[in-house]
Amino acid sequence: MRWTKSKRRGDFRSAGVPPAVLSASRGPTVGTPIIGLILISALVLFGAAPDKYLAVYSVAANYSLPLVQREGRAYVGLLEVLEPLGKVSAKADGPRWRLRYNNSVEGDFQVGKTHARVQGRDADLAGKFLVENNRGLVPVGSLGSLLPRILGGPVTLHEESARLFIGSVATHFTASLSADNPPRLVFHFTGPVNPTVATEPGALRMTFSREPLVAPASPTLTFGNKAIPSAIYSESNGMAVVTVNATIPVMASFSSDGRTVTISPTSASAATAQNTNPPAPGAATSPGQPPPAPLTTPPAAPPAARRYFAVVDASHGGDDHGETLSNTLLEKDVTVALARSLRQELESRGIPTLVLRDSDANLSVDQRAIFANADHAAIYIAVHAASNGHGVRVYTSLLPFGGDDRGTFRAWTTAQHASLPLSQSAAAAVASELQRRQIPVRTLTAPLRPLNNVTGPAIAVEVAPQGSDSSQLTAPDYQQLVTSAVATAIAATRDQLGGAP
Amino acid sequence: MIPRHFVIAMAVLLVAVLGLSVYAWHMRSTAASTPVASGDTRPLAPPVAGPTERVTLYVAHDDDGSLRAESAQIPLPSGRQQRAEELLRTLLSLYLDKSSPHVLGAGADIRSVFLVDPGVAVIDLNSAFADTHRSGVLVEELTVASLIRTISANTPGILRVKILVDGKERDTLAGHADLSAFYDVTAVNQLATQLQPAP
Asked: At residue A63, does pLDDT exceed 50?
């Protein structure tokens, strides 16, 4: 999916343009030069209304969509939101508008109604559902509740800034000021970034229009330094902006494959050299302003796809309860808790982690494998829970018969084949660490999907209570004991796994 | 005035209705007290006629999550396919016993086994087998490994095994063990080795 500020669909020609202006702009056949003059005058006097966009970030693709104002709200085409994420179709039938996603999810919408039905369940919309040119429009504010039911995964909506995060795709960052003289402000990002950098007197601004950057704990970071006193995070119109306030000219440089941005004071010689370079795209320059501070342009290559080191899959979910562990305890609920705990443990060890199912959503094994493969994660960890047996069982794939690869294409049923040695190595490391912590553990192969469909290293961890009491599976102490051991083992084999395809 | 023969006919019909009602009530009570398992008409024991043979059954044990080889002397028919069916039914009869080390649900059955050359075995389970099976990675793979290891160990030439449920393909046995693909007998034999009880 290519990022572009142009509208993805011609149906959104009216975005941000008043209807009267739109009708005049559809062509010269009207033959009313007066209207044209009025239009030009209006544009000159008031300027064109700025287009508004919704930025969508997902494992599959990052893209932006134009927003339209209807009924005093921002609306977006539901079909356009879903198109890059899967197979989607819609059919208008009078006031009804039916949506079909991935041949498994069905939605029923009615024009003018503020509620819809998705998979037979009611879903409230933040405003009336609209249809224009056979395209269904929903209020942007509805996406946060509507999309999880359609996509079967967690969705986070920043409505004010029109930013939509599908799955755990957010890029986090930290900022620290070095004690050097002159000082250097170092930003560390959990994924590669390629912001547009602009300077103005007293500030350097990094605009992240393609990256799913999210705010730190506090939007204002203060450093107690006279040269670089603070940095401010803000979001608007589908973009995130980090503004570094500086009393001296500063420049930005990139390292660690775009994961680190260093803001440092520039020297006069550096400034001269930098001023000979063409300005970076999007650099803010305006007449009357002093020359911009020198910039180090980010790498020219397009930003790398978001890559997580680990993908943790909370197995089951939605209609698939997994094992009924007790009268009140379902496997699908325990696996989510374990997956979240494992993510926390992995990220505390500096391992970027994606949890595939972070809510009670239906997610097929094929979808899980597709997500893991698309992310090219260094390790895929499926989490299961069981009431029988004691301790933890670590599984690698028991590959089925056949599945011949065709050239560079790998057979779906045996996609794991090439990575099996690394998977076994990771499983052995996990088992060893669990054993070291006195947790009973076994390593086995298992005919367990989607392990065989994952192209990279993949293991499954089945957690059983240490005794006969299944309620131990919900005990935070026990969960942390297990997930901490797994995370430690993964961290220890990071170098080995990092070289995985 | 009502004719006499009409009164007699009505009285006879009334008596018949009352009699049938009592009979229906009695039949209903009898049906309610009959165990559900009565629907399981499969013979649990292999046919007693004919010469017996010594076979090796790979029996799952839930207590330690192991698969143990156990010898049994059972009568087997002469046909290769019928032998495979009876072999698995013998194994199943162990699991249907209440004192089984790996209990399967009531009504679980092997509908049939097909041996297709070269080296393919298709095991068709009934729906009760899968519907009543306990869920869990280990407990399901013990069942699958037990079936495949037993049939392959006693029926030479089997290289891959497909498991169907009620004649149809099914995604998993009970939420975990994959039934959508063919099992590689060599890989299952290795799994059986992993599942051997600790010495």
From this structure: yes
Rounded to whole angstroms, the Cα distance separating A202 from A101 reads: 49
pTM above 0.90, yes or no: no
Residue A267: band (very low, low, confident or very high) from pLDDT cuts 50, 70, 90: low
On whether the CB atoms of residues A138 and A125 are closer than 8 A, the answer is yes
B90-140 residue pLDDT tens? 999 999 988 899 999 989 999 999 998 788 999 999 999 999 999 999 999
Rounded (10°) CA dihedral B131, B137, B142, B144:
60
Within 8 A by CB and 6+ apart from A17, the residues are A25, A48, A49
How large is the ipTM? Answer: 0.76
Q: Quote the longest CA-to-CA distance of chain B.
A: 96
Q: Which DSSP string corresponds to A440-492?
A: -EEEEEE-BTTGGG-SS-EEEEEE--SSS-GGGGG-HHHHHHHHHHHHHHHHH
When CB atoms are compared, the residue of B139, B176, B184 closest to A400 is B184
Which amino acid is present at A356? Answer: L
Domains, chain A, ranges and CATH? 10-22+43-166 (3.30.457.10), 173-275 (2.60.40.3470), 310-399+409-498 (3.40.630.40)
Tell me the H-state helices in A187-327: 268-275
**The pLDDT of residue B109:** 93
Any idea where the domains of chain B sit in the sequence?
A: 4-34, 52-194
Rounded Cα–Cα distance for residues A445 and A396 (Å): 5
Residue with tokens 């131990």: A472
Cα gap B139→B129, rounded to integer Å: 13
**A→B interface, C-beta within 8 Å:** 316, 320, 322-324, 331, 365, 384, 386-389, 393, 395, 398-403, 413, 442-449, 452, 460, 462
B191/A445 touch (CB, cutoff 8 Å), yes or no? yes
Considering only CB atoms, which chain A residues are within 8 Å of B180? 449
- Probe site for chain A from B102, B137, B171, B186 (most A CB atoms < 10 A): B137
Using alpha carbons, list the distances in angstroms from residue B93 to A117, B45, B53, B138: 48, 7, 17, 21
Closest CA–CA distance from residue B185 to any residue of chain A (Å)? 8
In this complex, the residue of B139, B159, B191 whose CB is nearest that of residue A388 is: B139
For every residue of B65-88, which 3-state class applies, written as one string? CEEEEEEEEEECCCCHHHHHHHHH
Q: pLDDT-based confidence at A10, cuts 50/70/90? A: very low
